[in-house]
Amino acid sequence: MELRTLAIWIPLLPLLAAVLIGAIGLRGLRTRSHWLAIGGVAAALVLALLLFQRVRATPVAEAETTFNRPVQVYSWFRAGDTGERDWFNVEFRVDPLTSVMLLTVLSVSLLVVIYSTGYMRDHHGHPEYGYERFFAFLCLFVFSMCMLVLAGNFLLLYLGWELVGLSSYLLIGFYYQRPAAAAAAKKAFLVNRVGDFGFGLGILLIFYHFGRLEYGAVFEGVRNLSEGQITLIALLLFCGAVGKSAQLPLHVWLPDAMEGPTPVSALIHAATMVTAGVYMVARCSAIFTASHVAMTVVASVGAATALFAATVALAQYDMKRILAYSTCSQLGYMFLGLGVGAMPSAMFHLFTHAFFKALLFLGAGSIMHAMLGEIDIRRFGGLRRSLPRTYGTMLIGALALAGVPPLAGFWSKDEIVHAAWTTHPIFGVVASLTALLTAFYTFRMIFLAFHGDERLPQKVDHPHESGPAMRVPLMILSIGAIGAGFFGVPAGHGAFHHFLEPVLQGEHHDEGGRAVMVASAILSLVGIGAAWFVYGARRPEREPLESLNPVLFRTLHHRYYFDEFYDVAIVTPLRRLGRFCFGFDNYGINTLLALIAGVPKLIGFALKGLQRGAMQGYAMGMTIGMLALVGWLLWANA
Amino acid sequence: MVTPQSLMLIGAVLFFLGVIGFLTRRNLIIMFLSTEVMFQGVLLNLVGMGLLHRNLEGQVFGLFVLVIAAVEAGLGLAIVVMLFRRKGTLDAEAWSALQG
To answer: What is the ipTM of this complex?
Structure first.
């Protein structure tokens, strides 16, 4: 197959599936809707594998020219009139970064789609309300993500960027009957708009400076700009990444997004969409590495978010929220990696994180299923015996997240920690501290949910392990969580890094790697040990931190009061302004209009008495008028 | 000797007789006849004007108006008949649905 055909069909297949399910899902397919979704995504995955093979087979000598030449799909529209350059094309860029992202996205998507066929059912095994809608949205998301990843210019990137935002909105609000879900969807969309505004400005600025938007041309032209201009562009683009990837201060939407169905949380809000910001920064590494300030900002925001979210996760009870903050924190790691110049390491962490975080979320979904929707870890415990398979797979995911060697998370996280230490000690300290906290909160969750005496919510009699549709994806993902790290061994020189080398501009950090590696492993084990000491051996009645320092605990539990602060500082004033504008329109302008409309009405009311309907009356009027006229004429001429 | 003044005077008298008739009677046919009387008054006026200016246009114009008046009388009577058929009365007060 031709490269162009391959590249076109990868996004097209999920889109076709989405459209077909949307068109005939309700009438014809109903409970069979998932077959189209599975088929579309699986076929796209096969094509992505072929594409990956093709990219890998590209000789090193030709790599740069091949990858910089976009795959033209069609000419979209033109603006201006100076010839060929004014056409905006739909064009794809096929290079190692793209193919790695495609593989990650599509493989996790496929597993999540399969998982959803089991998850989106009530406890009698009947499909939930909106079953076909769910799969249509999911396929729409896969299409959007493929477009985002494949885009060959900034315009198409923006299109994909907004499309994933839309799918995310639709899926968070999937249970739209629940006010909390509808509010969460709205919040996610609005918060993302804040970031996207900056992103859009960045793209406009790129167009202003270069007159075109193709990646190749823009990255070539970067060296002609001054550092100030580059910094501005990079920071504006980074705004978009901050919104999409839930970094400080726009992270508030991600925990609320957990109102969506759990497979959605796993796919969109852990494994793929939220990593779009990381992908974008890596893709624009030519722009970011040209500005020292921008790189520092990226690293600082990443480090701050990593530490902040990890501390918040310590004091949450909702399992999905713990995982959501963990996602925030891990995304912070990725940005820290990008910011300190370890672009391949950040992408590597993105890759491994997709597997183990999706695994953890799907595991949480499995528990939720067994607990009939209960997700508060205070309400259940000791599920190890009744849900052995879920326990096993989640334990693997937790070990990978905590960074225990030799699982996936260890290798990728260690690289970032190492790069952070070599750049600046502050980054190093934050990265290591976060690693320790990560291990601690992950195993706090595991110990509380699975260890100790069994306790169940009142409505659950005996929890049962979920069916094969949910179990098998968990197992496959556990294999990924164990094995994905080995693509990056030895650290910094693994197959993964060599594959990405032609497209990512980054530095290698070699010296002293082993010491950091050992330290990281010890830190994660210490974290797990501490969690065992506090939660594992005996289930504490109260949170130990709460008894130790109630103020700190409450602050953490309320997420540093970020939401409350935004509510007071932004949401309420804006809402007041909205209400004021509404009032002005409703009472001010509408009253004025009513007054103006009242004038002719009033005149009509005054004059309608003259209209009696009697013919003689009118004739009399005419006669008197005529006489008056004649009289006036005679008098005037006299 | 017929003078223009006498013609116009008779015309004016006829016209006002018509007006008074139209205003005071309620019978549709009488009212219609009154309008005809006004018409003839105007016609006499035309002839008188012609005489005053010593040309024939006034009289020719008068002839044309006479013909048109005949046609109009036919139409008007037909309308009155139709109105009568509708309400079974010739009272003009019966047709006052358009009051404001």
So the answer is: 0.80
Residues sharing a CB contact under 8 Å with residue A79, sequence separation 6 or more, in sequence order: A86, A88
How far does the CA of residue B93 sit from the closest CA of chain A (Å)? 6
- Min CA distance, A628 vs chain B (Å)? 15
In a domain, residue B82? The reply is yes
pLDDT at site A583: 93
- Any chain B CB within 8 A of the CB of A615? yes
B61 and chain A in contact, CB less than 8 A:
no
pLDDT at residue B25 tops 60: yes
d(CA A630, CA A632): 5
3-state secondary structure of A245: coil
For residue B96, tell me if it sits in a domain: no
Encode pLDDT of B29-44 as tens digits.
Answer: 999 999 999 999 999 9
Average pLDDT (B69-83) is: 92
**Segment A179-183 long-range contacts (CB within 8 Å, at least 24 positions apart):** A180/A259, A181/A259, A181/A260, A183/A256
Given CB atoms, is B32 within the 8 Å cutoff of chain A? no
Which residues does residue A455 pair with via DSSP β-bridges, in sequence order?
A381
Closest CA to A407 of A342, A466, A360: A360
* Cβ atoms A346, A290 nearer than 8 A: no
- Whole-number pLDDT of residue A489: 76
- What token pair was written down for A57? 């087979």
Does any CB of chain A come closer than 8 Å to the CB of residue B80?
no
Give A-chain residues touching B99 at CB under 8 angstroms. 611-614
Does the distance separating the beta carbons of A611 and B26 come in below 8 Å? no
CB contact burial A455-466 (16+ within 10 A = b; e otherwise): ebeeebeebeeb
Q: Helices in A465-558 by DSSP H: which ranges?
A: 468-483, 495-500, 513-531, 544-548, 550-557
Return the CATH number at B18. Answer: 1.10.287.3510
The token pair at A593 is: 């209009």
**Proportion of chain A in helix, strand, coil states, percent, rounded to 5:** 75, 5, 20
Percent of chain A with pLDDT over 70: 97
Interface check for A190 against chain B (CB to CB < 8 A): the answer is no
Q: Are A502 and A64 in contact (CB under 8 A)?
A: yes
**Weakly modelled stretches of chain A, pLDDT under 70:** 81-85, 491-492, 505-512
* Domain tally, chain B: 1
Whether B93 is covered by a domain: the verdict is: no
- Rounded CA-CA distance A24/A438 in Å is 45
Q: Give A52-81 pLDDT, tens digit per residue.
A: 998 888 887 777 788 888 888 888 888 776
CB atoms A610 and B100 under 8 Å: yes
The reply to whether residue A614 touches residue B23, judged by beta carbons under 8 angstroms, is no
Domain around B11? 4-88
Name the closest residue on chain A to residue B92, using Cα atoms. Answer: A615
Q: Which residues of B touch A615 (CB under 8 A)?
A: 31, 92, 95-96
* pLDDT surpassing 80 at residue B58: yes
Round to whole Å and give the CA distance between A376 and A389. 20
Residue B52 lies in a domain: yes
